[in-house]
Amino acid sequence: MPPVKLAIVGGGPSAFYVASRLLSLLPNSGPSSLPLRVHMFDRAWAPHGLVRYGVAPDHPEVKNCTHKFDAAALDPRFRFFGHVNIDCNGLPPIPSALSIPISSLFSNYTHLLFATGCPLPTLHPAIPPSRHCIPALSFVHWYTRHPSQPPPPAIDKFTHLTLIGNGNVSLDIARILLTNPSVLEKYDLPKQVLDVLSRSAIKHVSIIGRRGPLQAAFTNKELRELMNLPEASMVPIDSSVLVPPDGTTLTRQQRRTLELLQKGSQKAPGTTPKSWSLEFYRSPTSLSSPSSASPADMSQLTLAHTRVDPVTGRAVLTGETSTLSTSVVVTSLGFRAERTATFRDPSVNHLRTRAGRVLSANGTAIPNIYASGWAANGAKGVLASTMMDAYAVADTILSDITPGPERVQTTAASEYLPNENSADLMLNPQPHPEEPPKEVVQGIKDGTVTQYEDWKAVDAEEIRKGEVLGKERERMNWEDAKAFLASRG
Q: What is the mean pLDDT of the chain?
């Protein structure tokens, strides 16, 4: 069988799950072994994507999957190249990273997998980003020290923060803002972030949802965590909002959600220094900036009142409106691909794929090019569903690279419809068997490009520093990591 040299663009969970399955199902030696190399590229200098730069710091158990990723990285057929911008997804590059064109991958690899996720926030058309309206992704990237380096929010000047969207990311942000920094300091929150949180003036967080409690996007686990905060209480919800429509058959989760909302927070309203509220059946229509720079002068958020259409399940306007005074608005409405991303399908806002294979504009599969995770399916699902999707894509790749009687036995492969007009997208069938693109080789020499052994050294140092401070880890940014790696010689 011919050698297979796979380039994976993206270094998050989906990328690692695909790599892990390929490496585990294809033996490294023996008569049935296939010459395989897997090279993974990420624009961040550290691997693991949303596990490092998206998981809430007080949810360390979610990061346990990195043990599996470490095991995959130990395989001698695998290499990781961090701090490399691949010009294919239309994103503004990380300024300090090496940038290379996607053509470098086409000329150096036999196969290509996009696991780039949906790296941009979905914005609300009525309230674009401004000084008084920021995407939740910027907030998350701030407290995880993402290499994009968004500025810290001015929470020392804000007393009221409003979240648009009631998914788990919104509840994560609310929980962090409503929790005493002395409780958070044992987790993976950098000192710089804790310093800002310690100066926070936030007293109330409003969480806005366009539909009702039965359609809420948060999980009950996240809701319980918010309910049990020792220094924040929930404003009681109007009992009429918690009555299901006649004839509604509730799921077990919906029943439990209503029970939690009816019971309310562990601390009684009015007994805590901070508070929060869930506002259902509301949809923003405009945001008016304050007339002065005084912290007491609030923005005015206009909210259209809604109801849920019993046939479509969608939110429809009732004609009523109300106004909410707030210091700042944070929009948490999901994630999307960049509009100029290679192979993006504008109708679904992610890459054009079928069963893991990337499709041309006319709907036929482009040979040897694949996509997995959010890049292929949109921003949905949790780590478990990401893993299952990645395994299915790995099985598709295996069915293509081990045809006929030598095929590795996996789940059933999907039908492959080759694209006869894709000569311009052909990868190199005979690249150098080991080397990455020459720009990456030079980037490693220059200290710009990181490898997995670099990450493991930084990882150990972050944990060591954390132990000294009595916390999970003290994470570095690129400047810290670069200086540390240079000091090791």
A: 92
